[in-house]
Amino acid sequence: MRKQFVKTVEAVLKNDPKVVLLLGDIGVWGFNNASKLYPDRVHNIGILEQSTISLSAGLAMNGLIPIVHTIAPFLVERSYEQLKLDFGYQGLGGNFVSVGSSYDYAALGCSHHCPADVPILKQIPGMEIVLPGTPEEFNDLFLESYGNGHPTYFRLSEQKNSESQKVKFGKATVVQKGTKATVIAVGILLDRVLEASKNLDVTVLYYTTLAPFDSAILKKNCPSNKILVCEPYYKGTLATEVIDALAPRPIKIEFAGLPHKFFTNYGTASEHDKFLKMTTGDIKNKIKKLING
Amino acid sequence: MHKNEHSTEYQHTLRRLILESATTSGEGHIPSAFSILDILWVLYDQVLNIDPKNPNDDKRDRLIVSKGHASLGIYAVLAEKGFFKTSELLNFAKFNNSLGGHPDRNKVPGIEASTGSLGHGFPMAVGIAMALKIKKNKAKVFVIIGDGESNEGTVWESALLASHHELSNLCCIIDYNHSNDKALKLGNLRKKFESFGWETRTINGHNHKEIYTSLSTLSATRPTAIIAETIKGKGSKTMENNHAWHHKTPNKEELESLLKELA
């Protein structure tokens, strides 16, 4: 996804003179060419995330469209108040593109993990949250929304699904139809959910935009009142959206997501998936249990 | 446009307005507003290129009051300069009014940035100055920060950024009223900003001539920092350097006494 990020941003820099890219001293090599072509609009701004977010708000106040890129915990958690006040409260538009969310940088330890990005960003009114499942989906979603005047968070992952879906900003997609349960797959979890749902009579909904949440599609595609939400960040994050979308129907809701704790192991992301029960087999077991429960 | 020969008269009017607004609402940081009132007045009276009738004009100079708790000061000056009616001040901090304890750019004409949490306005001002440079807009950007605010890391991050990007269109005014000395000594702010690569001056922040001269002759090659030596609560002997008044508002009897002091 990072390679696509470079390509997509190079294209918008070329086509839209309002776009300004600020890199937190990461991904700089990839943007060497863009930096030479647009020296006043591409900056390796340095390792000062809080001021970078405020500074980008200053750019937005004057009609420019900032794209800020750095590692998820520093972009989101370290700069949370700046995102909340300078963008959310002031009603400004900007794009915040992370890498290294959840445990993509597993071996680097807890300082570089970020499973709370989506849960906490959801608490900022007006913040849009996008989790593409493939590089192509990132390109489509970014081009559709980068200049919409709202603050938008894009979570780039080191993992990706094997095929791209036809995605639209703010809309979820029906990937499989069934009657016994509805399984929500967020971003890079679609491959696992589809494999786990094979030969099972369940609906699969694919969400790449989490905020604003597409309630309508869930309302139309939940014949059983049983829902499993598969989310690649702290579990339970979408609970309120699901309950609100289906209210006042009585529902049974289960989650396949990350437990609310620090992940103190190192190793690889797939080792964490196994340890935290996020594999295809784990998801399949949850679906079966939900159907038969 | 009013000129500085009437400054004393206006300072009296502004302080009266602030005291009455704070008394009516039971809210406001009066001494913080008094500390920067001379600077605000000179900016709007003589320095800033801004039209109250067209406050969003792209060519306007920008002022950000990063120490947003001094909102009564900027409101009083904006009202006196015609950005909105002076009578609005008496609705300060009321439920449905636009003038809050900290300023909101989406509610108040002339307010460039919503501030309140310290350390946000300065980096936003850096971003505005960068944006103006990118857009080849000749307007200038002024930001007022407090000495307490200067404890925040973002102040020094902003100082680095502005210097690195040679933002000669940016001027940072530090309201050095020393109220923060009780917590964390800042030492020689002038030397600190100089070491960050800024053109730096120290002035008496209540002397209108000094304020005007320093703000109207900014460096042409790098950002300018003005260390304004000020007195918190300036103009009210009761409040000057009296921390008890930091977030206290007068009752009716106290108001009468404070107004007499002004006279």
From TrEMBL, chain A:
Gene3D superfamilies, per this entry?
Answer: 3.40.50.920, 3.40.50.970
SMART domains reported for this sequence: Transket_pyr
Q: Which Pfam families match?
A: Transket_pyr, Transketolase_C
| Domain Transketolase-like pyrimidine-binding positions | 1-164
Identification of the protein by name: Transketolase-like pyrimidine-binding domain-containing protein
The organism is Candidatus Yanofskybacteria bacterium RIFCSPHIGHO2_01_FULL_44_17
Q: What is the lineage of its organism?
A: Bacteria, Candidatus Yanofskyibacteriota
Automatic annotation (TrEMBL), chain B:
Q: Which residues form the Transketolase N-terminal domain?
A: 11-258
Q: Which residues cross the membrane?
A: none
Entry-linked SUPFAM superfamilies: Thiamin diphosphate-binding fold (THDP-binding) (SSF52518)
For this protein, the record's InterPro entries field holds: THDP-binding, Transketolase_N
The domain of life is Bacteria
Q: What is this protein called?
A: Transketolase
Q: Which organism is it from?
A: Candidatus Yanofskybacteria bacterium RIFCSPHIGHO2_01_FULL_44_17
Question: Organism classification, top ranks?
Answer: Bacteria, Candidatus Yanofskyibacteriota
